[in-house]
Structure formats: structure tokens, C-alpha cells
Amino acid sequence: MAEWDAGTKSTVQKIPLLKTKAGPRDKEGWANRLKEEYTALIKYVQLNKGSDQDWFTISSNKEGTHWSGKCWYIHNLLKYEFDLEFDIPVTYPMTSPEIQLPELDGKTSKMYRGGKICLSIHFKPLWSKNSPHFGVAHALCLGLGPWMAAEIPHLIDTGIISHKDK
Amino acid sequence: MADDMDVDVEGVSLEDLMAQLTTAQETKSEARLSERNVVELVQKLKEKGLIGAEENNALLHTVTGREYLTERKLRGEVKDQVDKLGGRVALAELPPLLDVDIVHCEKAARLLAGEARATGEIKLIDGELLTQRYFDDTGVEINETLQQRGHVTIGEMAKAYDLSADLMTRTVESKVGGVIEGEIRSGLVYTPTYISRVRAIVRGVLRGARSPVSLKAACSRLRVHEVALQALVPTLVAELVSRGEVSGTYQTGSSIWTPGSYGKRQEEEALSFFKANGYVEYETLKRLGIQKPQAYLRERYQEDFALETIFASPSVLPPLDAAVDDCIATGSYLDMGQHLPSPFTTGDVQDIVKLAPKVKQVVSSGAALVLAETCLVSKAFCEKCEAAVRESVVGRAREMLEKKKAAQAGDSKAAGAAKGKKGKGASGEAAFAAEDDSDDDWDTGRGKKGKKGKRGKGGGRGKKGGGGAAASKGQPPQDEAGAPPSLTELEGCLRAVDDELEYAGDEVTLLSALSSHFAHFAHNEHKEALKQNLKADAEARRLRSEALSSSVVARAHKLSVYSRSLSMLLSELEDEEESGKDTRGQLERHLVRAVVLPQVDDILKLSALQAFSIGQDLGEEIDELSKGKAGLTDKQRLTLARGLPKDISKAATDLASGIQKKTLQEALALAEDASSDLCGKRIPKLDKKMEQQIIQSYQNELLATLNSNQTLTSTIAIAVPLIFAKKKGCMLNLPGKLLSFALEILEGVLDQEDFELVRRLHKKTVELIQKSSKKGADDDEISSLEVELASLSSSVTDLVSKLCIEE
Predict the structure, then answer these.
(1) Is the pLDDT of residue B222 over 80?
(2) Residues from chain B contacting residue A59 (CB–CB below 8 Å)
(3) pTM beyond 0.90, yes or no
(4) Which residue of A58, B44, B310, B706 has the lowest C-beta tally within 10 Å?
(5) Which residue in A19, A51, A54 is closest to B7 by CB distance?
(6) B17 in contact with A at a CB cutoff of 8 Å?
């Protein structure tokens, strides 16, 4: 986990690991898995709030297959907020979810079509290694968080995105 | 990953979890700011004036730098702290307690005290904060101490509570009667019980005393507090005395109690001494405890004398009165101290002498006077002394003048010698004139005042010269020689009167008192004596001057008679040949030498005297020359002429040096001019009557001389002019060798017999003179000639006398 900064690492270590190995197709197991996902997310949100590092909101549909919410990044005392959404893949939890930031679709090379962020290099091997213990909370913490920290300042500086008030 | 990190979802519904997530996301996130941010934030707020801008509510920080706090908060904390510490805290103690710098603590304390000034709730005194509660507590504690000990002093309390005496006094005063049950006086707080105890002690001491007692000593023995002694005891004693519980007097300053009984006894002792001896010393009474003995005795004996150190009754006076009487009777003096009791000091004697009726009486009657404060000197003795002083002073003045004259004569001689050395003739004269000139200049240059001073000085220097003028103007001569006699000299003189005088009197001896007494008298006498001397001088000069002036006139007249007689006589010989002319020359020269020169001398002398009498000082030499009665030598005449005042000196010098070379007529004219020019003496014209009178007096004079004449050889020299005067009415002044010439003229005038007699006398006289002047003359021959001459002389005298009486 040498690719992530110390803060991220210490945070991810405090997020509870999940036990149930079940995808949306497994009726019984998925309900349990979903509960675990929520529990982990609650813990993660609490951790963030506690350390004044809250940076997203999220919720899922009733089945827990589609997740949406908002994430934000503060750069030069300005808060940049983006919509966030993704679907739970069928092969979940063996496959990691593909997180999308539709507003940024086509604005950066570090992104797949449809606004899916590019996480393949470091994140995917880690996910595979820790599957099925990693869940949505881990994906946000280790995937989306570092991606935004790396990409958004660049996008702002190059003028590709601008603050909504400007 | 640890197992305990695993999710446990048993018994929890999905809905609950979703709701929990929502709740967790809605919860406000905790703000996490770094210290630096906070510091910056606070800085920003201060800059914006959002915090710390209110007056007296600035934002402070603790000494650790970890906390911010406002002044208002600090004041609250300080107040809490003071209350917590019992109402008193030193400002220096606050910083460690509050972690705030002392400066802020002090300011907070000041503000707190200022806010509470009206209520007095909290005070800032000497770097300490004190609340009212603290003072209340202190009052209670003081009261406890007071009740235990009966008394406390403010000083002790101030020390115990480490408060200023002033503050402690105010605190205690405000509490006395309230929290503190007692009274405060002179810095002492005490209970009524304590007062009763002290009163009992004092009463005991006072009642027990039989002689003067120091309450201070007694009370300290009985452990009465010293402050109480000062504050309470005087009041207590006064109370006790007024209530009649004790009897006596108390002196507050010295704390001495004198019991009534003691005072009475002492009084009796002191008064009995006074009654027995007629006097008592104040010191004795003081030793007996009477503090103001003079006033004390004065109250009891109004009539008696309160002296310096002694109180005396008139009974001490009789011995003194007797001595005074005796002194006046014997005309002596006495030291009155010796006739009074021995304890009398000089001051006492001085006092009583002023009060004693007898002394007053004799002094006022003038029978005696008091000198040297304590000595009585009778009038007779005074007179004796006065006479002695007068004698001594007059003698001394005379002596001084003489000495001075001698000194001046010495000076002038020296000056004369110096002048002589300078050279004679024109240069010497010039020098002399110049000296005189400068003197004159100085005299007039100093104006009126200078002139006056100079005159006075001149008078002093030349006593016999200008002194008369100075004295007549009322200016006493005042120089070193004219100094009045000193006190020492007077003392010496008085010591000669009575050598015991210096042992009478005390600090001032009678001797010095007497000399001071006579100082003024001696001074006056001295002045008088000087004046008298000077007057005598002036008088002598005046007389001489008058004599000279009349002699100048008389001689002038005589001169004119001589001159006329001579021309008359010579006119008879006019037909004579050469020898007649020669004779005429000889006669005239003789007349000039014998009569005109003395006239010139007198004129010069008179001029000098006149100069002296108007105050000009011509020097001692001139003075001497002008005084001389004898004729002057040529040298003296010239000196005198030169010494005359500048304006006439030239003319006088010409006259003196040239007169002998002139003919008789010229010389006469010169002499007459000189008498008017030099000494202002006009010669009145000679009339017949006056001429007759002159010739008559000349005859009488010659006749008197002839009759009283003892010298045989001069009979002829007197007889011939007398016969001329008688027979021809002329006055002759002949040299001896021209007698024969005069004699020849007489032939025919006298009877032949008488003429022969006269001629024989002349012959014999010439013969005798020639013989006796020769060396180896025959004594027998001379004596026989003398015998013959004697008979001839008497015959001629008789003849001439007869001639004179005939008419």
C-alpha cells in the first residue's frame, strides 16, 4: 500500500472489513453483505466527520445495486462539488465497482467513457487481493479519494473545471 | 486486518443501517484547526476589531502561551482568587496562580479596586488586594486577642497583620464598638476591665507614695503597658484627684507624682531657711521639689527681692547700707558684693544693687555712682580720679606736642640738608619753587573738602604755625600724635591713684569701668589741652607779628629821620672837598647796614609770620627764623626770603640779595616798597610832630643808656649823638671811626670848654682802645688811662645830662 498516503492508510485500517462473500444475485447473502456495506460506510463517515475530513455523501437504492451521492474537493479555499454514482457489478465483490463522476466525462484522460474514473493501476490489484473483505467504503477511500486529490487540482489549474460561483 | 475490525450485522435491519448512515452523514463534522490557524484566526479577529477592542477588555494570553483570555475574564478570576484566599492576596502571588503576567494582574487589581471604590468592597493597598471580608475577619481576630489580653496596641496588630499603622488604626477605629468590644486611645485598644485594673494600680501607687515618685517607673514595675501609661494614666490621675481619692500634684511631662503631704513638709523647710537667713537660693527649692521657686516665693512675699539665682528679703541689706555710708564718708569706693551673703552671684548683686533703696538714694543724690555693675564709687573718689586723669592727660598732650616738634625739627633739618646738597642758585630755587607749587596745586585741587582736610593736617603738622588758624576754625587736630589717651593708659593712670581698683568688680573690674567712665572726660581734656597749646602758639605768633609790624613802622620813621639828619649834616659840609664825599659814602653805607638791613629782616619775618597765620606751612626752618629776635646773617636772610610764599618769594629774594649794594636813597625806597608789597604794611607819612616825638624818645633813650652805661669806652659814642639830637635836632648813626668827624661839627655848637672836654674824652677813649688792643700793652698805663677816662666820662655824662635837663 505504498501508493497511498499515510492518512489514507491509517483511515482505511479503521474501516471494518466485510465477511460475507455475496453478490447482488445471491438473495440471502446479498442482504447480509449490504448490511455489512452500510455498517462499514457508517463507520467511515463517522471517522471522516471526527477528523474533519468529510468529503462525500452517498446512498443506495432499496436493493443496494445503484449508489449515488456527492463528493467534493476543497482547493484554494473553494469547494468544488461533483455528482457521484456507480452500479454494483454482477461479479461483486470479486470485481470492484466502477465509480463515475458524470460531470467530468471527457475532461480528463484519467477516466473511461461515461465518467468512470481510471483506477486500474494500483487499486484493482489491491481490491483483488482483499476481496471479499473490501466494500464500497474501501472503494471510496482508496479509489475515489486519491483520484480526486490527484486529478482535481490539475483540472482546476488548467482551467478545465471552474468554480460554480465564478 | 484484525478480527475485531470485522463487521457484525446480526440483529440489525437494513433500514436501520440506512437511516444510521443518513444520520451519520447529516451530523456536522468536527472542525479541526491547527494551532497556527487558530493563532492566525485570532490575529485576524483582533485586526478586524472583532475581539479585544473594548476598553479594559483586551485579549490577553497566559504566560504559557496556550490560552487566550479577556481582561474581563481575568478580573473575574482575580476576584475569585482573592475570595478563595481569604480576602487578601499580594499581587505578586497572582501570576503563578492565574498563569497571567503580573502587569495584567496589576491592571486587573487596579480596575477592580477602582470599580469597588464606592462600596469599599475591595481595596488595593501596598500591592495587596484586600476585601471587606478580610477586614471583618481581622476585626474579629483582634477582638479575640483583646479579650484575652485586656489591651492591644495598634502597632502590635499592624505588625502581626503586616498592615500599615494608619490602615490598622482606621480598621480598628471602624470596628471599635462593633466587632471589637473596647476603646481606642493613643494607639491603644483596651477593654473596660483593663482600665479598672490600671486605675487600681495607679491609685495604689499614688496612695502609697510619701515622696515624689515617678509613675513611669512604678507602672513599668507593675507591668502597665507603656502606651497605656502615656494614654491613660494622666486621665486616670486627674479622675482620682478630682474624686478626692488621692491628694497631690502630677506633672504630665515627667510623670512625677508629688504627694500633697510631701509638698507641705518641703515648703516648710524651704521657708524656714528663708526666714532664718533672709535669703534662699532657687536651686535649694528646686531640690526640694518646687519647680518654679521664683514664682512660688513671689506669691508669698510680694515685698522681697526676686534676684537672678536667689530670693532675698530686705534683711540682707543693713550691712550693705552701712558700708555705703562709710564709703561716702571716707570718700572711697567699695565692691558691694563683699557686703552681701556669699551665695550671692554677680548677677544677684547686680540685681539687688538696682533694687536697694539706700544705693538708689545715694546714686540719685549724686553722692556716689555705681560702676562695674557692683561697685559703688563715692563722689570724692571720682573727683580724685578725675584730677589725676586731667593731670595725666594734660601732661601727656604737652609731651606729645614737644616730641612731635622735636621730630619735625629733625625732619626739616634733614630736608634742609637734602636741599643744600641739591645745589645752590637757580636750580635749587627752581626746585624749591616747584615743590611749593605742587603743594599748592594739591591743596586747591581737592576742592572744599580736601582743603579743609589739608588745613587740619597742616595745623597738626606745624603746631605753632597753622595750628592757631585751624583751632580758631574749631577743627580739632586729629592725627597719630593727636590721638586721645587709650583705655590702657587711663587704667595705668587710675592704678596710680589706687592699685586695688583692678581687684574690685567681677567680669568688668572697677579699674576698667572707671577708665571707661573717664574715657570721654579724658578725651575732652586731651582735646582741650591740645587746643590750649595751639592757642598759646597762635597768640605768641600774633604778638610777635604785632610787635614786628609796629617795629617796622617805627624803624621806617627813624630811617627817614636818620636819612634827613644825615643829609642836613652833610649839607653843612657841602663845601668840603673829596674827603667829604668819602665820608658821606661811609655814613650812608653804615646807615644801610645798621638800620635798613634790620628793617628788611623784620619785613621778611613779618611776611613769614603772616603766611603762617593764614595756615601756610613754610617749614620748620622758616618758622625758627621768623621767631628769632636777633638780626639775620646774609645767608639766613636769603633762606628766609626764598622760603616765603611763592608770590612774594621772588621779590623778597631780590631785596635780600641786592639791598646792600644800593645807595641809601635807593635802599630806603626799596625798604618802603617791600614793607607794603611783602607784608602789606604802609608806612604813614612822617609829620613834624611825630618827628619831634621820635627825636625826643631817641634822646631819652640815649640819655637812659648813658646814665646806666658801664663801659667807659662807649660813653663818647652815646654822648655825641645825644648832643647832636639835643643841639641840632637830628639823629645820627655813626660808625666809631667817624666820631671825630661828627665831633668837629660840634665845635661852635657847644661852649668851647665843654667841647674840649668832649674832645678830650674822645681822644683818651681812642687811645685806650688802641693801647688795650695792642699786644704786650703796659697794664699800668692802661689802668691810669682808665682812671682818667672814668673821670672824663663822668664829667661828660654830667655835662650832657645838664644839657638835656636845661631845656
Answers:
(1) no
(2) 18, 21-22
(3) no
(4) B44
(5) A19
(6) yes
Asked if A59 lies within 8 A of B29 by C-beta distance, the reply is no
| Residue B477: per-residue pLDDT | 44
* Chain A contacts to B (CB-CB under 8 A): 13-19, 31-32, 34-36, 38-42, 45-46, 48-54, 57-60, 64, 133
HEC sequence for B492-552: HHHHHHCCCHHHCECCCEHHHHHHHHHHHHHHHHHHHHHHHHHHHHHHHHHHHHHHHHHHH
Interchain CB distance below 8 Å, A49 and B28: yes
Whether B461 shows a pLDDT value over 70: the answer reads no
User: Which residue in the list A21, A60, A116, A118 is annotated as catalytic?
Assistant: A118
Distance from CA of B24 to the nearest CA of A (A): 6
Cα–Cα distance, B639 to B622 (Å, whole number): 8
Quote the CA–CA distance of B555 and B597 in Å, as a whole number: 11
| End-to-end CA separation in angstroms for chain B | 206
Q: What is the Cα–Cα distance from A79 to B404, expressed in whole angstroms?
A: 136
Give whole-number Cα distances, B708 to A100, B630, B698, B703, B713, in Å: 197, 22, 15, 9, 13
- Please answer yes or no on whether A46 and B24 come within 8 Å at the CB atom: yes
Q: How far is CA A84 from CA A120, A144, A157, B631, in A?
A: 19, 10, 22, 173
Asked whether the bond before B314 is cis by omega within 30 degrees of 0, the reply is no
Indicate if A141 belongs to the active site.
no
pLDDT tens figures, A102-146 = 888 888 878 777 778 877 677 888 888 888 898 998 988 988 888
Of the listed ranges B56-70, B260-274, B362-376, the least confidently predicted one is B260-274
The pLDDT of B103-132, averaged and rounded, is 86
pLDDT in tens, B409-440: 666 555 545 444 444 444 433 333 333 443 33
Contact B32 A52 (CB under 8 A): yes
N-terminal to C-terminal alpha carbon distance within chain A:
38
Phi, psi dihedrals of residue A53, rounded to the nearest 5°: -125, 35
Considering only the beta carbons, identify the residue of A18, A45, A53 that sits closest to B21: A45
- Cβ–Cβ below 8 Å for A41 and B21: yes
Measure CB to CB from residue A45 to each of B6, B24, B32 and give the nearest one.
Answer: B24
| Closest CA relative to residue B799, chosen from B758, B741, B766 | B758
All three cell numbers of B321:
547700707
Q: How far apart are CA A75 and CA B275, in angstroms?
A: 128
Element housing B122 (H / E): strand B122-125
Residues linked to residue B430 through DSSP beta bridges, in sequence order: none
If you ran DSSP here, which 8-state letter would residue B316 be given?
G
Confidence class of residue B181 from pLDDT cuts 50, 70 and 90? confident
Residue B86 — left, alpha, or beta (φ > 0 → left; ψ -120 to 50 → alpha)? left
For B22, nearest residue in chain A (alpha carbons):
A59
C-alpha span between B656 and B409 (Å, rounded)? 25
| Cell numbers placing B418 | 637734602
